[in-house]
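Action item from last week, closing it out:
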Amino acid sequence: MEPVHAAVTGPAGNSRPGARIVVRPVLVLALAIALVTIGCGKRPAAAVLPDPQKIDNTARALMKREHVQGLALAVIEGGEVVHVAAYGIRNAAGDPLTTETIMYGASLTKTAFSYLVLQLVDAGKLDLDASIADLLPRPLPEYDDYHDLAGDPRWKALTIRILLSHTSGFANFRWLEDDGKLRFHHDPGTRYGYSGEGFYIAQLVLEQALQLDVGQEMQARIFDRFGMTRTSMQWRPDFLANLADGFREDGTPEPHDERSSVSAAGSMDTDIADQANLWAGFMRGDGLSRTARAEMVRSQVPITSAHQFPTLAPDTDPANTAIGLAAGLGLVTFQGPQGQVWFKGGHNDWTGNLVVSVERERRCLVLLSNDVRAERLYPDLVQAVLGETGMPWRWEYH
């Protein structure tokens, strides 16, 4: 299970094979000033990242422990990609997983879509807090997929901010309801409850109110901007040559879906090399104003639920308050030993993706796996690479 490595690309697009972490004098000085300034409340200095060989060895050992068939990762430091690797196999035939293997992005799509939305806000084309009733050319219940909401005026309280922060009041998907119908379970904006349905409505707003093709906008504003040549919101025939199938909890292989329609909730196909560029760009804030970038990772609504799923369970956990667990826009944020950390997962029965980012250091670990069992090793791998982040693992992976 030897790792397959890619050249490391910095923000200017220059290829730097075999790049290593360097100690930046400016970063060290800034850290020293911060420690003096915050006195007794000081945070510990950021740990030095392990070298790539140690990361590779750790990943291989954890994959063996958890019987994981395929895993790809990228490490970002100071907003620059410093290590990209892939391990294991991409299908039941045993073909190797490489840094250019197409994998399912799953709900990492939601963060990329949120980044697009904030670019539109920057451009003055969209208001995060406007009612969708004022944005859509006709009432939401008049659209084919939303007749279920006729008679419930709470849909008028929905805003883009509410939809991107998972506080819409909807179940994750309507097909999880006993009758398969869309309904509010609480007033919009009052409680976190992960919902793909909210992102469907946000996509509808872009398409109907702004007359945008979301697939084309994602391509131009996100994928092209970050040099992501093997990423798309829809299936491309050229993906077939190096495509990852999935592996379920029992190891059963699952063919890769060919998604024919664009979904802001999760249709992105991609590879780890492209994802490395994407999240490095996010860490730097490329293409966004400082205000919009800060708004994306800002605590929007406290998260009180004991677990992320099931989304509407009433159980709460006071530990969330202690770390300031909260919804950002298309991500989740909290305060840990290294300061602000934000993260986003992507999951189905044969996919386990996760991105964990330390804001202060612009440091990030991107994890893609075509084997859902990889989620069992992520706590150990994240700690081995990023140090103690304080990640709320029980909330994320209950």
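Closing note: The first strand starts at residue 4 and ends at 5.
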